[in-house]
Amino acid sequence: MTKYESMYILKPDMEEEKKDALVKRFSDIVTNNGGTVEKIDEWGKKRLAYPIHYINDGYYVLMHFEAESELPTELERNYKISDDVLRFMVINLDAK
To answer: What does the pLDDT look like over 12-70, one tens digit per residue?
Structure first.
């Protein structure tokens, strides 16, 4: 199993319940595919470096997990189809 780090930015104007459901959905994708979530760190609402679709703020979430090498592709696919995700990045920590 490989260690990964995933950072994603959600729209800042989401309701708390919807935001929590989305964070849980992404962590469930990891656990349902045989991975383990080590830590989810919600940084909260912060100013973006540049506007994305005329949005100046974003809700930052950092997730550390361990999974097989096919899982990041599935996770990125789910990030892409979610309208509430502004940006995302998945990094392989073992490749350093």
So the answer is: 999 999 999 999 999 999 999 999 999 999 999 999 999 999 999 999 999 999 999 99
* pTM of structure: 0.90
Q: What is the C-alpha to C-alpha distance for residues 62 and 41, in angstroms, rounded to an integer? A: 5
Amino acid (1-letter code) at residue 79: Y
**Burial class of residue 67, CB neighbours in 10 A (0-12, 13-18, 19+):** buried
How many CB atoms are closer than 10 A to CB 40?
A: 16
Nearest-angstrom CA–CA distance, 64 and 5 = 5
If you write DSSP's letter for every residue of the chain in order, what string do you get? -EEEEEEEEE-TT--HHHHHHHHHHHHHHHHHTT-EEEEEEEEEEEEEEEEETTEEEEEEEEEEEEE-TTHHHHHHHHHHH-TTEEEEEEEEGGG-
